[in-house]
Records
---
Amino acid sequence: MAAIPSYTPPDFSRPDLAAAPAVRTAPAPADGVLPPGFHATSNHPEYVHRGSGEWLLAGESRMDAVLLLDAGGLRVVEPRLVRQGEPVVMGRSENGEEGIYVHTTGFDPAGTATEGKFAFRARGTRETPFSRSYDELYEILRHDREQGSILWVLGPAVAFDRDSRDAMQWLIENGYCHALLAGNALATHDLEAALFRTGLGQDIYTQALVPGGHYNHLDAINEVRRRGSLARTVAELDIRDGIIPACLRRSVPFVLAGSIRDDGPLPEVITDTVQAQDAMRQQARRTTTVIAVATQLHTIATGNMVPDYRVMEDGTVRPVFFYIVDMSEFGADKLANRGSGQARAILTNAQDFVVNLRHALAGTGKL
Amino acid sequence: MAAIPSYTPPDFSRPDLAAAPAVRTAPAPADGVLPPGFHATSNHPEYVHRGSGEWLLAGESRMDAVLLLDAGGLRVVEPRLVRQGEPVVMGRSENGEEGIYVHTTGFDPAGTATEGKFAFRARGTRETPFSRSYDELYEILRHDREQGSILWVLGPAVAFDRDSRDAMQWLIENGYCHALLAGNALATHDLEAALFRTGLGQDIYTQALVPGGHYNHLDAINEVRRRGSLARTVAELDIRDGIIPACLRRSVPFVLAGSIRDDGPLPEVITDTVQAQDAMRQQARRTTTVIAVATQLHTIATGNMVPDYRVMEDGTVRPVFFYIVDMSEFGADKLANRGSGQARAILTNAQDFVVNLRHALAGTGKL
Amino acid sequence: MAAIPSYTPPDFSRPDLAAAPAVRTAPAPADGVLPPGFHATSNHPEYVHRGSGEWLLAGESRMDAVLLLDAGGLRVVEPRLVRQGEPVVMGRSENGEEGIYVHTTGFDPAGTATEGKFAFRARGTRETPFSRSYDELYEILRHDREQGSILWVLGPAVAFDRDSRDAMQWLIENGYCHALLAGNALATHDLEAALFRTGLGQDIYTQALVPGGHYNHLDAINEVRRRGSLARTVAELDIRDGIIPACLRRSVPFVLAGSIRDDGPLPEVITDTVQAQDAMRQQARRTTTVIAVATQLHTIATGNMVPDYRVMEDGTVRPVFFYIVDMSEFGADKLANRGSGQARAILTNAQDFVVNLRHALAGTGKL
Amino acid sequence: MAAIPSYTPPDFSRPDLAAAPAVRTAPAPADGVLPPGFHATSNHPEYVHRGSGEWLLAGESRMDAVLLLDAGGLRVVEPRLVRQGEPVVMGRSENGEEGIYVHTTGFDPAGTATEGKFAFRARGTRETPFSRSYDELYEILRHDREQGSILWVLGPAVAFDRDSRDAMQWLIENGYCHALLAGNALATHDLEAALFRTGLGQDIYTQALVPGGHYNHLDAINEVRRRGSLARTVAELDIRDGIIPACLRRSVPFVLAGSIRDDGPLPEVITDTVQAQDAMRQQARRTTTVIAVATQLHTIATGNMVPDYRVMEDGTVRPVFFYIVDMSEFGADKLANRGSGQARAILTNAQDFVVNLRHALAGTGKL
């Protein structure tokens, strides 16, 4: 498929790589503590030389993790999860000098390494043409609906508008969402919309402030806390519309990560942020395309966890796409600046983006 | 039609208005100079009391102009166009005390004056639900296509993307644009796209920077200057796609107003800003709906010229709608803060906005 | 002192309040679950009528909490902390109809209730004049340094620049900071600056990217995790400069709240967000002035916890000031829109703000 | 002086340059029309090879102009000012292939060509450390006050705040401004402040909206139009404070360029945009440091006119610095993206920037 470039592994017969030493490890001095000189992962494919020309590719990688290498193979682990004595890969060079090779050009079209990289890094602004980006995105989503795993990261804005909430529901119901990462606010306002047709007390269609509407999200939270879970609430009240209900009906896993600004929170919210990270990474390991919409916090958190490649079950390597939909260049650039080179920013309104996507994928106009 | 509220004129039999004195005028002391104490217009319907209970409504009004009253009637004139000795309406009160009445509630639904005003002024942000705003806009455009006059104010971003440029062309060709206000850049990059498929040297579909592409807009300008006009260039080169060509084919008038950042400029550009204002106001007088997209300068300039009502040829009064499409709350609020109460901000990307509009009005999805 | 308005309590002899019924309570049906119809607090002074004309003012209030009323008095408690059977104040009216009175005009200058409120709520933009806001802020800080409690809420940007980091240190050392709320990133980059003179690998003075600098914050975190705490690290390495070291030296309490984007985290970070909220509220209860700089998440979280008044130990009531320093109108407005009417936005760069404040309070220029 | 790097001319004995052909010219086919294949200037030093190893450096260059070469030498001229038959330099290569050499590394420190360029182009955001940028700016301004020429480009925001307006006045009075480029709005609101203490009707110190204040700027404009000029108005009314009065007193030239959003305009405003460009370029030719504050239109217009070098009267070449002070990354990047590589963005509030600058240069704190 045109939109998904193929992967060219490094040529380990190259003289510099052929001459590379075996990688070195050192034991972690304590739980959650690394030996000085540890190697930290990027979001690119990384190989370590176990010796004798055997190079291992790190599977299920992420940014700023460490590599544990033992007889069982190579694992990518967050520093806080490293246990005392585990063998941590050492070295801070990236071209084989210490047995570590970071392969940044594996998805470049043949013969265009430099150009490809340049285009890849070009930063978009609100005036950048996005026509092809959209066409590619549609192609990718149609492909990954069947053969990949699409991960959505959503801020609450998507639930504040009737049409975008409907569109997101449609995308879930039609197989374009394999997992959802969000916070307490998205789920709360999605439920508020289901129960009261408002978002933070404002009608999600007419924008009108409803009298007493500022109680609506508090009442929604209280309702769920009383019943014990979102699942039970949706079932007992027979709620049929909305984002979370669609996930429940379709068995799409969702992670609601807690934050210090949460009211409630809802029972499903994972209030401990390191536990929430662990749950998020479970989904991040599998993803082939991420679409992060209107949430800086969750987008950066997810961006840190998602590498720019995935080793599929058959051993092939494919790129992971990462779309960031945001209104400000600052927000969109922030992730790109942290080293997530695969991020593609689309500068637009979250609601429009989701509504468009639905119509493009459904092949229907707005009537 | 539901979307277009009807107008309720003031009740001049109200005691305070019935007791209002006749308005006073004073002669302008010199060309372009006003008598101290002059009255400046708002963008609302304003009436002056000529005496004996005869109140005249200002037609074709605008912000910060003055009223000239003589036997021939009441005219709204920019201060710089006032000639020595002309009778300028005096007074700075707005409730009849000096024979001037500013009618701010004429379009409010019966019995809801206060609420109506409040909703009208609510400021949108990127998280505001826009579903109904879009539905209303579609309804208004379908109505005004036949029975009104739709004025577009465009920044160059619309020409930087293939799909949005195509969509704008479609809107013009299908009768949704009765006049266009823009600057040198919009026309230049529209032509650059026609000749080279680029915008500022960047491919309008793929985003790729074309080698030597920074010459493209200069070559486009030179081509037009050589041939003498956009009209001749489009005809001689048989250019069929684009915004300006569509206007030329459909005889949609356009005003290109000069600015100090212009290259060239193109021959049609009115380099003198007061002449450009006069040409813009010719179009502004007629409009019933304005859609201003991705240009702060032209949006504010137009906003100053467009009142929130229009007196139709049959004497009926209808509202004038003013949509501002911008990416930043600052940009969108700026006009609202200057007193253009009718402005409705839609916070989104210009390209998405235009593409959506096309699909919604055409009743087709993006395929 | 001029900058701190005095408080006028409600006149409970007013006929409508004199006729108010006693407030009603209902037992919480389960831990963390509220009885339907519960009353939620605003950030304004709220009084409940216990009967016989006895009105109790809620002390240590906050947004969206509930009131528990029993023989021991009136407490403001987050819904999740309510225990089964506790008596929750019921009612959603605010003018005494159900024995609850929300007093929004207590700090208005005599006779100017309406005007005062209007000015209070005026939204600033980047073009708003801030001269008096600064002068007032200096006056307030000089006052509250001795007679109040100044709470800073800081995003990491303050630590990314040498001068602003120095300035913040100075403000702490000179008594202008009684407590600090921040996240893992602020402390991490503050320590990174102390150890490496960089912020995310970029020199905090020259902006130059340091080779291998992307390891610096990971090494800083690892160093602290190895030693067990920030306090021990600062002591053992004899670190003298920076924000956290200044807090430690001056015994200024700080709360580091966890988020899902944290690397590490540092040992002092409270990873559970509800525990972090509890710790933050401990500081929020005492504050008389909040200065929230360049962090949307922590600002909103804090804004939810800080009422617009404080009952001092001697029973007097004074306003709590809440300054938000942010670069975008969207960010600054967001808190104001949630009902935190006392928030005053200053639209500017965090670094400039802090540096200016230091010079203004020190009475020195930048030399 | 450390802050002002020295210039290294190209080495024309390099084999590729030694072998370069003489440059070719072609006559302009008509007034304001260029021969196809014309060369357009960048903002870098450009040399043309007249033949026999004689290379001429373009003096007083600018972006997107053309080079005219004849016996009298080499001139940089805007395309619209080229007259029929004048000899236009041809060629679109930049490394001598056609006798044109664009020298982009002349100001790089010896031996660091690549690094220097990289650092130069790094984009700032609101989180970038600016400490050194400020220190360098102070050093540059102290130097250029005596030995250079400082050009300010000002949006109206500077006049909307009492302290920043005072600070700007101080900078002019103390020799830190050799010329000023602005629009009708800056001068209008500066005068409004002098006459009424308001900006657009809002008190420039307290932010309070003054009753009837929306007339103030119209009355100010009318006052000046009545008296015939700003100079006469300032003299006759004995106005002592403000930006324009300071320019008049110190004989600092100012250009007020017209735009389509102008009320009035004031008599000094040059309403024709090409005439305004000519007047602006008169100032731009001389400048050694530009400080552009809070105006996108004037900043881009000026950026197009100011090269990154200046040939001094003694023939030495020095860099021209270009500071852009803006609140949004989008605004600040826009100029940089157009090829003005020398632009340095400072992301902050215009008012704070000017006030800080005054205190830093005066060596005084805010008291």
---
Amino acid sequence: MGKGRLEAFSDGVIAIIITIMVLELKVPHHADIEGLKPLIPVFVSYALSFIYVGIYWNNHHHMLHATKSINGAIMWANLHLLFWLSLIPFVTGWMGENHFAKWPVICYGIVLIMNSIAYAILVKLLIRHHGEHSLLGTAFGADTKGRISLAIYAIAIVVSFIQSWLGFALYIVVACIWFIPDRRIENKMGKEEELHHG
Amino acid sequence: MGKGRLEAFSDGVIAIIITIMVLELKVPHHADIEGLKPLIPVFVSYALSFIYVGIYWNNHHHMLHATKSINGAIMWANLHLLFWLSLIPFVTGWMGENHFAKWPVICYGIVLIMNSIAYAILVKLLIRHHGEHSLLGTAFGADTKGRISLAIYAIAIVVSFIQSWLGFALYIVVACIWFIPDRRIENKMGKEEELHHG
Amino acid sequence: MGKGRLEAFSDGVIAIIITIMVLELKVPHHADIEGLKPLIPVFVSYALSFIYVGIYWNNHHHMLHATKSINGAIMWANLHLLFWLSLIPFVTGWMGENHFAKWPVICYGIVLIMNSIAYAILVKLLIRHHGEHSLLGTAFGADTKGRISLAIYAIAIVVSFIQSWLGFALYIVVACIWFIPDRRIENKMGKEEELHHG
Amino acid sequence: MGKGRLEAFSDGVIAIIITIMVLELKVPHHADIEGLKPLIPVFVSYALSFIYVGIYWNNHHHMLHATKSINGAIMWANLHLLFWLSLIPFVTGWMGENHFAKWPVICYGIVLIMNSIAYAILVKLLIRHHGEHSLLGTAFGADTKGRISLAIYAIAIVVSFIQSWLGFALYIVVACIWFIPDRRIENKMGKEEELHHG
């Protein structure tokens, strides 16, 4: 089964998710600059989520680039990931509007964890489909980055019960870890091509 | 006439439908966890519709994969399907906000039936265009799954007049039946390829 | 200059236009069937606009199918068409919410006229780019259907000052005229291929 | 790394940005023509932003057409551009709703400047990736148009503190400068092809 339409559909959904988040930045009814002040946390929250969704799109792109074919289970794992991604605008708006209060920050973390798990499931199914010795299998073998992220998310949630700003800061830390695109695939592919041509 | 742009357009519309549904999850204005409680039925309703739209995309993908060319009637049958799919966010929001009350659950079922009929029309036109002995014709010959779904939808609507939660449960049953992607095409294609190469 | 990305972008914009119209169908806050009654004109208005946007997408698809290359002017003519298409959700919502009252029906007609003109400009530029003796030039030479539509729109607007329901009925008439996809291109292409191969 | 999915994703996001802006044109609840009057500045504001986003799409299209491959940094530079583009609907709505008052017009200019800078960064990274003597490098060598735009934006912002309508007029001036698609690439490509074939 071809991967083309899966990529196109995922791109469409992720493009919509990343864009409708901006609708939470409600246009103020007055023209004075003071009207923007309460929007600052909403804006900060939007910027972080934009980066998160960008990271997911980026890694999704890399991973599917290394994919040769898909099956029904992979399609559903992908939809499962898109489902949790689609909840990011909701928690983003809630967190921003309530100035990074306890519960919104915790829920934001839970949604991030669910996204992380959904992504891991997708990776696992792709590796199973392509074989452990495939490019995908060796590149994503030990998902250290993913495990560290999960741990930090968990710490962030616990910490948020006491000081929610600290939890939010930890989400920024994870975003920084992932900001650099996943070079594992790129490196592997570069080496394979060298072997091929060299 | 090529099918490429029909696929792309359908993907776009379905991607938007599946994503704007989440806008019904209105961000609560307060930060306490209690604010999420009234959103639980909206969330459950959203999750079910996400799966339904996912199923339609999945099967649409499989069916058009087996399609070689299209004509004007098929284009309109496809738009007709997209029209009924586009009403899913509306009934989803209505059903969730009213905690699965009688009329919203009934209307949800009616929209599902209309989608089911629209899909059957699309299948019929595709088979007529490709011939009954084509891959599509033999794979979709007796649409047992489709008939069973229609019957359950009808029962669900009748049952909802008495107990709407039961109707909702029946919609979940149909979703489970379809959750497994349509292997008819995949099986047929596998066999054809075997015949070809074997 | 390739036409691929122009098609993709147009598909994206049209897909969003056709889908966000449904957001005007505001979810009623009560669960009784009475709550749907005031939505009936909004629904009728939505259905008509869905067909209109579908017609534009359909014809746009056919026309660009016969197009070989584009230039900067064509890109802007295309964006100009998308601009007027993007106003359809607004007039649709206004017309539906006000039960086909005079001014909304008139404005709906004005937007349809502007779309019609924008489409004609796009056709003209495409013909100039490909030459009058090209497939496009001969197929769209005398745009009879387009002229008739324009005339009916104009009559509909005048009539709406007295009886707006009649104006609305005339919009349905034009939709029926166009409902059948533009076979001019298909016919021409069929003949060209015959000439080629025969 | 292929550029195909980057183009597709950018097209998707830009298509959504250009279309959701129209949601700021809120449907009036009454049917009389007077209800449209307060929407005129919102409409004018929308039309200008539609042209701006169209210009960005147009130039983005041209630039990526001349691009052969991309890397991780280019992906993020592209997402950075999409981020600032996604803020255009917000400032558009704010400016329109407040009849081109001082602060909204200033903020609109700031967002335009940020877009301009984000675009320049993307160009710079693409040139660095392809080499200064590449098609991209020579075509975009001295970005005179970009520099002039930045200067006018800056003047517009300063001027808006005294007379915001004048600032708005300057934004129209810049749009006119860019309205003509970027022929630098087209010219260069034409010449290269001549050299190749001549």
